[in-house]
Every structure is written in C-alpha cells, then in structure tokens.
Amino acid sequence: MPFNYRKKQTTRKRSNLDLSVIKNALDDIDQGKSIRGVALEYGIDRNTLRNYLRDRSKLTKISEQGSQFKTSMIFTIEEEKALVEYLIACSKMNYGLTRQATMQLAYEYATMNSKKVPDCWTSNNCAGKDWFRGFMTRNPELSLRTPEATSLSRSTSFNRKNVTDFFENLKEVREKYQFEAHNIYNCDETGCTTVQECPKVIASKHKYASSRTSYFS
C-alpha cells in the first residue's frame, strides 16, 4: 500500500476523538449501557466504539501517538523531526544527502529502532519513493536544492592560516625578485575542472543550499 494516501471524497465529517471521551464511553458500556445509547450520548460512531471494545490496546496507542497518528507511518513525529534536523545539519556542513541517500538512511534508521517496515524496504535496503514523497510533504521546511560545487581541497584548505601564509609568501617573493605587474600571470583558469557535478541534495527551504564538497548517493 503506498504511503501517499488520498483521502476519500465523502460528505461525512470525522472529528478528532478525545481520549478521555472514549474512556468514559467505554466505562459506561462496562456498566451495562447499550452501545447505541452511549454512541448517541457522546457523539461517537457505533463502529468506532465496537473497535475499541474489541481491542482496548488502541487506547494506549492513541495516548502515545495522538489521534492524528496514521497507522502507515513508520516513524513517530519526534523521530522524523530528528531526521529533519540531521539532514539540515549535513547540508550546512557541505555534505548534503541526495534523495537516494536519504531513503537509505531512513531504512537504516528504522532498522536500528526496530521499526516494522514494508517488505520492499528490506529487499531494496532503502525506503520507498512513496515514503520519501510523504516525508517531504510532511516537512515543508525541506527542499531538494542544487548546491554550488566546491572541490575538497578548496573546502579544507581555505582557512585563516593558509590564506595568511599565502599572502606572506607572495609578499616575500615579490620583494625578493622585484616582480612588476606584467610579470604576474593568473593561471588558475585552465578549463580543466576538478570539481564533480553535484546532484540535488536535501537542504533547508528558502535558504542558500551552500557549497558541496562531497555527497552520498
């Protein structure tokens, strides 16, 4: 079953059920009241009451996840939030994750937390495309962005000490050999790039995607 669930078009409006209301309704039924009468009194569908009577463990699940928790969700809201924070942190450190890498990470994350996953996750060693689309929809602060490509040497070498040493050496050489401006050539534009082409990575929405020195695909 795909995770991008489409709500059925129906005129029937379902309201969120309060946990205390359900418990009170079940207590009244235990005291001998009819399901029909309790359903009318509390405004709860009779089939819903029957479901909770057959399996009261659902009440525990509601108290832990909330009434908006969908049974098809793999991770809890808190777990997905932690995953979002990790993806944003990776993009800020120039190691943004691609869509495929994120799907693989989600599978490993679910496995480490002993989550029940679909069979296709296990066979492919990664989450499904439907899960990824749903994940991006549930977390609109994320977006697939194309970052600026940056070589690894530039990223690791461009710091205060190296830049200071470069200009000190340049000053020393110019003073020693008395180079004029016409003796200095700029040879960095050779047309041979050492920077790999970057695929789209997950980064924070409405913000610059940052540079990228490496990626996991």
From TrEMBL:
InterPro entries reported for this sequence: CenT-Element_Derived
One annotated Gene Ontology cellular component of this protein: nucleus
GO molecular function, one term: DNA binding
Organism domain of life: Eukaryota
This protein's name: HTH CENPB-type domain-containing protein
Organism for this UniProt entry: Acanthoscelides obtectus
